[in-house]
Amino acid sequence: MVHGMLMGATTTTGNSRLYGTALLRGSDCKSVNKTHIASQGRRQHCWGPYVMRHFLPNNCNLPRQSGLKVEAGWLFNRSDQEMDASSERSESANEDILVFFFQLDLATRVQYALNLEQYDVAQQLRNKLTEVEEEIVRQRDAKRGSTSKTEAQDKAISILRLRADMQEAIESENYAVAAELRDEISKLEAESLAASAKALAYENAQYAFRLGQKVRHKIFGYRAVVCGMDPVCCESSSWMEIAQVEKLPRGSNQPFYQVLVDVHVDPNLLVAYVPEDNLIAFDQPDMDRFDHPYISFLFYGMDTAGDFVPIKQLREKFNRPRHEVPVDPQNEEDGREG
């Protein structure tokens, strides 16, 4: 997370839920509080006011809306090993979405401050946005293998040097040192291969599902919407053990998807990290209602095929193309006749 600045909380108002996070320290709040910058009306990225008003440290002294209840964050730890839907619940996937929300909201607030000619506040917000974006890029590169290329190259150079040292040890008949160097070379070669494979996986990733697509879980049967993807499992070893990833046909070396789970199916699951092996697409357009507190922030709305249209920033985050819904010739003909 962003250098320990993330604070998670669950906010409940009425029958709807928002899972919030703040990335500002107390010292940042004093300067931002010089003016009231709030989104007017319901906008695509209006999640930010909840962050600024309800999740900042107490010394910000921002007014709290009445009737708002702040609860503890999700509890992801499970002591049992039984396989159920919550086994694929992902705290890191949820936090990734929340940081994305906050990044969007900061950009909106910078523009809003400029519109109000609050230039000092705009600069402070821009500095915070730059800090958050730099950390997000760093984490994304580490996750997607950009740093793995450099890591593999560095290890390759180290291997060359160790081989030269091993040759000298052999020529000097210092076989004990040569054996130690040989073992170290073998270890570095394995690490270099793993780093190269990870980088290559992201470069050549092929996904069966797309952003905004409605899917169904093969085992648990719930409906979900894809909101993110990785070409391989990027969760921790403990999470993979709970989710029993090793029992999957393709194990961890397959695409994994961040999915939003319909709250009517399981209001406590919300965000899951699901392997491609466990997801199936609908044979026919699914036009049934789908409710989730994150939908309005990640998607423009539903298309004619029943899937959701991702916002531009979400497509850019995962470097995915825009999906065009195929035109039904029969419907097009009927439209002309009408």
From TrEMBL:
Cleavable signal peptide: none
GO annotations of cellular component type: chloroplast
Top-level taxon of the source organism: Eukaryota
Chain segments annotated as coiled-coil in the UniProt record: 115-142
Residue ranges of every copy of the UVR domain listed in the record: 156-191
Keywords, alphabetical: Coiled coil
MF (Gene Ontology): DNA binding
SUPFAM superfamilies in the cross-refs: YccV-like
TM annotation in the entry: none
The keyword Coiled coil belongs to this UniProt entry's keyword annotation: yes
PANTHER family (alphabetical): HEMIMETHYLATED DNA-BINDING DOMAIN-CONTAINING PROTEIN
UniProt cross-references to NCBIfam families, sorted A to Z: yccV
Protein name, per record: F-box only protein 21
